[in-house]
Amino acid sequence: MTDPHDTEEPRQGFAEPYVIVSSDCHAGLPTEEYRPYLDARFHRDFDEFLGGRERRREEMTRLGIRNEAFADRWFSDNEEGLRGGWDPARRLKELDGDGVAAEVVFPDADAVDSRTAAPFGVGLGLSGDQDPELGMAGAQAHNRWLADFVSGNPERHCGVALLPVTGEVDRVVAEIHRAKESGLGALMIPSMWVDKAPYHDRRYDPVWAAAAACAMPVLTHSGAAPRDEYGDHLGIYVSEVTWWPARPLWFLLWSGVFERHPGLRFGVAESGCWWLPNLLWFMDRLYLGAHGGKKLSPFAELKRPPHEYLDRQIFVCATNTKRRELAQRYEIGVDNILWGSDFPHPEGTWPDTRGWLARTFHDIPVAETRRMLGLAAAEVFGFDTTKLAPLARRIGPTPADLGQDPDQRAVEASWARSREAGRHWLTGHDFPTLGVTP
Amino acid sequence: MTDPHDTEEPRQGFAEPYVIVSSDCHAGLPTEEYRPYLDARFHRDFDEFLGGRERRREEMTRLGIRNEAFADRWFSDNEEGLRGGWDPARRLKELDGDGVAAEVVFPDADAVDSRTAAPFGVGLGLSGDQDPELGMAGAQAHNRWLADFVSGNPERHCGVALLPVTGEVDRVVAEIHRAKESGLGALMIPSMWVDKAPYHDRRYDPVWAAAAACAMPVLTHSGAAPRDEYGDHLGIYVSEVTWWPARPLWFLLWSGVFERHPGLRFGVAESGCWWLPNLLWFMDRLYLGAHGGKKLSPFAELKRPPHEYLDRQIFVCATNTKRRELAQRYEIGVDNILWGSDFPHPEGTWPDTRGWLARTFHDIPVAETRRMLGLAAAEVFGFDTTKLAPLARRIGPTPADLGQDPDQRAVEASWARSREAGRHWLTGHDFPTLGVTP
Q1: A184 pLDDT above the threshold of 80
Q2: Of B356, B369, B353, nearest in space to B405 by CA
Q3: Which GO terms describe its cellular component (chains A, B) (predicted)?
């Protein structure tokens, strides 16, 4: 973890606009337009898939994920901007309007009515029990289209390839290399393996090795969940839909994947980061407690405490970070929090990202804000901030635009106690210290 | 939630010993001794079950839950005290030594080597996919023994009946009434329903109604988890074994069970309480956000925000509470945290509960300590503190024994900012404020 307070780089001036990178945006074609990207031998299956759309909509409506009245208003209010979900020129206009210089592009532009669902349900709902043939075919169709989509402005987009990782390992590894060569920069795996091998299984080692060799971060994204257990209770779904994408984190960690593959980076997208401090505290205590003078550890596959793997290899695409989460950033690690706008989803900050940033970051130190809003994401996803700087100067909000105080010494002082306690279980403090000191 | 700072009762003096109630203890017979409590027609099945002990031990050892060297030392160091797991006289001696006036009694005295496992695996591992016949037979065997066990000193023990709730509803309801009449005071249901109906299902309404009518709190307890997904990685198990018993909480809440059964009380045992503030914040925001001026809510089965159900009907048997958790007690609700010693499990505070309490509670206000160490549990489980008071005067540690400061005004002042922010999303504070003000 780079500590922005210890950096030797000259600090950027208060007047310098932010280089904003959204670590969580979405793009996808209107579903029927995926046909030319799909191998012809799957066209009949594709017709069947299209025929099931109405039934899937009804399921979403029953659970309350889809709301008819809201959908009608959302589409009429945002008709033009929503075309940015698949129209590159329109998209740049929307990103510029939000002050976003670069973005990470996940599937499923339309989260309201699923009109841009990738073929065979391999978008955000990508699941471990997907039919292997159709799953790879659907993923490749989206990946091919996405490579085209980002090719016009590669310095501004990092396309996330869909990777049905529970399938045949050789084909999965081949798809990683194909995606990399086509210009995509990251990999999304299912949150849930369902009836397939859990992610601690050694069968996946060649996959993690290939991802590391290609410098493609591996991600999960919220969406999939065991919906058949929820009846029609939306609250149950929402209460645990962020747990399932986080779950692979501790499967990878405790099975030594991060130790065996130090070049692998793993991220959890659009699942918040409020759960991370407790998890880290819990895992660190477990590991450090087991190493207190005992010779044999049940955690022999790890060579260092969990927080070291977190800071070296794990991150969260925390999307529209909440104030409560920002208060916990010294436990999470400032550099592990990657903000995102979630464009063009309604639960995100678009089209009012500038106002939203001011309401959320106004009393956060500028140096830390720069890391969370873009610089940390640029490092994880390989964006060239030198190339983005001229654009950021044109579109990026400044600290003053976010209502931040020019007296940054006072702002940093107000957080000093919280920063000093940090991860209290490692710093000799037995309580967390959260919030500003007035 | 009773606010101990607003109470009109005269405060107990600083010199008054604590009435300590452990909300999480364990008792169980050496497995083979359950035979006389088991219906004779299940004796052949019982022999088969006993024959599988070695295989089950090997499984536990493989996952690292069981450690041979640790087990040997534990049993030789604590041979006498561990007999308190099933010997009432020895048990009282151990409780007295720890300063514990009363206790809630879960199954499985032996967490190290499973020598006191209830028949057919219905102890802490009670699971929704248990064979219904054997499950009820095993539960009744334990419940019968437990009723005998607590009958000698009913004012000091609340026995928790095992309830295989996913079975036939009429039999489940009958067992609730039978357990109540036999002198037991609470009900443990499986954390996981596995392939049976999730707990939002209306089929369970007669069960919740019977539990409420009998004033028997319903509990889950950590233990069960989908172990077949973990390989031999203990860290994975430990990282999520507390999530599974917490999960029923949001299934019950969002499906309106607490609204339909206002007399039902539900608790989660030995799963910590560090996860509760985030969950509550998340659920409150979801509910309150959906009610912002809109006519229709997807949460129509609730009539009030989640925190009101929490304070009215939900609690945590937080066992050996961590300092980190105590720092969050104004978000959780002081009255919702029920301490426990976990006697006679090695991960608990026995036999050094007095020392452990001093290390953990020394700077917590005395009035709040009284609630968390006993008074809140007494209300939930129906202990008569008037009857316990003379005993507590003899065995209970005093605030001075816990190293607490006689200047309680200063102690309360040090927590004032944190208490004032409380559940910050309800009090107009946008950050949590945790920890003492120096």
Answers
A1: yes
A2: B369
A3: cytoplasm
Closest alpha carbon within chain B to A423:
B324
Say which of B238, B301, B431 has its CB closest to residue A327: B431
- How far off is chain B from A175, nearest CA to CA, in Å? 26
Which range marks the domain in which residue A325 is found? 21-427
Return all residues near A84 (Cβ < 8 A) that are at least 6 apart: A90, A91, A93, A94, A95, A343, A344
Q: How far apart are CA A312 and CA A286, in angstroms?
A: 19
Residue from B278, B296, B364 whose CB has the most chain A CBs within 10 Å, to mutate:
B278
* Mean pLDDT computed over B160-166: 98
Q: What is the pLDDT of residues B195-207, one digit of tens each?
A: 999 999 999 999 9
Work out the minimum CA distance from B171 to partner chain A, whole angstroms.
Answer: 24
Probe site for chain A from B282, B296, B303 (most A CB atoms < 10 A):
B282
A279 and chain B in contact, CB less than 8 A:
yes
Please report where in the chains the tokens 């337009």 appear, as a residue. A33
CATH number, domain with residue B423: 3.20.20.140
% of chain A beyond a pLDDT of 90: 87
Q: Is residue B432 part of a domain?
A: no
User: Searching chain A, which residue's CA lies closest to the CA of residue B423?
Assistant: A324
Q: Is A247 on the interface with B (CB under 8 A)?
A: yes
Binary contact (B278, A278; C-beta < 8 A): yes
Of A390, A73, A237, A404, which Cα lies nearest the Cα of B254? A237
Give strand pairing partners of B158: B104
Pair of tokens at residue B159: 């026995």
Sequence-separated contacts (24+) of A293-299 with Cβ below 8 Å: A298/B64, A298/B67, A298/B234, A298/B235, A299/A254, A299/B234, A299/B235
Mean pLDDT for the stretch of residues A275-292: 91
Distance from CA of A31 to the nearest CA of B (A): 28
Question: Across residues A107-131, what is the average pLDDT?
Answer: 92
Enumerate residues 316 to 335 of chain A having a beta carbon within 8 A of any beta carbon in chain B.
323-324, 326-327
Residue A66 banded pLDDT, cuts 50, 70, 90: confident
C-alpha dist (Å) from residue B15 to A154, B371, B400: 72, 16, 7
State the total domains in chain B. 1
Average pLDDT, chain A: 94
ipTM above 0.85, yes or no: yes
Q: Mind listing the pLDDT tens digit for each residue in A318-357?
A: 999 999 999 999 999 999 999 999 999 999 999 999 999 9
Q: How many CB atoms lie within 10 A of CB B363?
A: 17
Q: Does B6 fall in a domain?
A: no
Matching residue, tokens 């160490």: B373
| A430 shares contact with chain B (CB less than 8 Å) | yes
Q: Do the Cβ atoms of A435 and B433 come within 8 Å?
A: yes
pLDDT at B9 over 90: no
Q: Which residue of B has its CA nearest to A298?
A: B64
Which residue intervals of A67-131 are DSSP H helices? Answer: 68-77, 79-82, 88-98
What Rg, from alpha-carbon coordinates, does chain A have? 21
Q: Which of A283, A323, A424 sits opposite B239 (nearest CB)?
A: A283
Residue A220 lies in a domain: yes
Domain-located, residue A124 = yes
Tell me how many degrees the CA angle B124-B130-B131 measures, rounded to the nearest 5: 140
Binary contact (B434, A433; C-beta < 8 A):
yes
Q: Provide the pLDDT confidence category of residue B191 given band limits of 50, 70 and 90.
A: very high
CB contact under 8 A, B255 and A236: yes
B197, two tokens: 């109906």
Contacts of B434 in chain A (CB under 8 A): 431-435
Q: Quick check: B198 and A247 CB within 8 A?
A: no
Q: Does A79 touch chain B (CB under 8 A)?
A: no
CA distance B70 to B82: 15
| pLDDT value of residue A295 | 46
